[in-house]
Amino acid sequence: MKKNLANWQRRALGLLSIGGGAVGLSSSMATAVKGGVMYGVNSFSMILGLVFFLWGMWCGIQMLEGRGQALLRNSIFWLAQVPVFNTSVFSYSAFCGLQFQLFIKLQPLDVGFIGSVFGAQFSINFGQPELPLFVGVNVIALLIWFWLISKYAVAQATPANLPN
What's the pTM value of the predicted model, to 2 decimals? Predict the structure, then answer.
């Protein structure tokens, strides 16, 4: 994997995932402590968020260490950060490190963006009819995913990885 990415690329992506995961983990823990005991959907959402941030930190460590499957693991992690949507039944948004979300709000019709230099967020909601209906994409996560998956495809096509 080290030959597919320059050291600075591995380090930058690894630090971005570790740092974003650490920010998300610490802010989630602070929210949990401040909010007291949580039940039902809130605790489920909080646990999923904590798992997401720990996953990001693990993927970042894999990237820093140049592990064999780091490209694939990180591409899956960054793909999970691409979609952003709200419906009355289900909403989802997640980012770890950087975000630039473009979205289309359907009621009333509006196009916009949300940007963040650095940070982390995990949001999943069930059955909230008051949320506005919108769909979007985290452009930074999408670009990183395309880049990682192309590097992974090249790595898989090298002669050492082809069957005899």
Answer: 0.85
